[in-house]
Each structure stands twice: as structure tokens, then as C-alpha cells.
Amino acid sequence: MASSLSFILALLLAIAATDAFTVHLLNKCPYTVWPGTYPVRSGSRLDPGQLAAIEVSPGMVSGWIWGRTGCNFDASGRGSCTTGDCGGMLSCAAGFKPPATLAEYTLGKGGSPDFYDISIADGFNVPMSFGPVGSSCHVVSCAADINAKCPSELKVDGGCVSACIKFGTPQYCCTPPLMPSTCGPTDYSRFFKGHCPDAYSYAYEKNSTFTCTVRSDYQVTFCP
To answer: What percent of the chain has pLDDT over 70?
Structure first.
């Protein structure tokens, strides 16, 4: 009986491991990027050309991946980053400090589709692409150098913040008295959208989430 239970447990664990998604993280930038991931926690430094990976369980709560720049960490994993900092930790236990180009995902389970996108609704720091590997599903890309073209009033060290982060008004943040159904683009969000048509450029923007029903691993490429 005990051996049968052990066999069943091992089988279930093997199935769960097989069912996990791998998200590959590739740095093609000419500078170092420290990927931030949440709620999957990992800490890594990617020098130019380096590759890392995280394992994601299907059906988990939505996750985020972003690139951090200008980071310095000590041996205990404490430090800070110029952009994308997550509480001064190498392994992120929370979200990021804007600006940061953000990959978002909810990976399906049991035949349900994956949902994924790139958001620059809080700003931009690193060019990025994100999508399934080896399938016909769309790879989302935000490859423009927005930092070089950022309006002066949105420029910050290492990146370009959104108008919502900069000014904090309902017009730019889609907050009351505005409703999601009445919130629309602004000149600032059009600037971001013009350079990265695939990406979310403001809160509640429609038609910037992509789906895939093909079982596949994913890849984030910094500076595609």
C-alpha cells in the first residue's frame, strides 16, 4: 500500500513538473539587465548575450516580468536599481518602481488559453519582446528606443515615465470621476503607442492583450 501511494505521488509530481511552462529570459542589449519577476521569485544578472529561465505553473495568478537597469547588489541580494527597482532586493517580493517595460501573463490550464501582453502604461525603460516559442501565436514587441525620444517632461534617469506617473491626474490615470468606459488616449499615450503599437499605453486600453491556445514555452527578449 505504501509503495502504491509513493508511486502515485511520484507520478503526480512528474505530471505537474511536465505541465509547467518555462519562460526564457534573453538579454540582447549591449548593457546588463537584471530581470525582475513576480510572483515567481528569481534573482539573476544577465550580461549581454546571457540567458536565464523561470518555471511558471499553469493556472497561477497573473505574473509580471520586467528588466531592471543600473543595479548594484551585495552578497545578500540587497541593493538598488536605477529603473525597475523592487524594494531594493535582487529577488523581487513585490512589484516594480516605474518606469519599466512590463511583460504580463496568465498562462492557461486544462485547455484554457494563455493571455499575455506588454505594458508601457507606467513608462518604458528597456526594449522588449514577449511571446510563445515555436508556435504560430503572435510575439508582442516593443523594440523602439523610446528613451531617446521621450518628451522632456517625462524623462527620468534611465527611462521615460508615463503621464499618469508624472502628473497623477484622472485624465492620464483613468481614475474617478473618469470611468473605464469613458477613459481614452491622450497625446502622451499616443506617443508611447506610436512607437510600440502592440503594447498597452494607458489603463483600460482595449485590444492589446494577446491569446494563444497552443501549448508552448515563452521567451522574453530584452532589446530584440
So the answer is: 91
Nine cell digits for residue 121: 502604461
Name the residue type at position 222: F
Class of domain 2-222: mainly beta
Contact between 60 and 99 under an 8 Å Cβ cutoff? The reply is: no
Q: 3 falls in which pLDDT band (50, 70, 90)?
A: very low
Q: Which long-range contacts (CB under 8 A, 24 or more apart) does 163-170 make?
A: 163/188, 163/189, 164/121, 164/122, 164/202, 164/203, 165/98, 165/99, 165/122, 165/123
Q: Higher pLDDT residue, 73 or 182? A: 73
CB 205 within 8 A of CB 10: no
Order of all β-strands in the sheet with 218-222? 51-56, 21-27, 218-222, 128-132, 140-142
C-alpha cell belonging to residue 104: 504580463
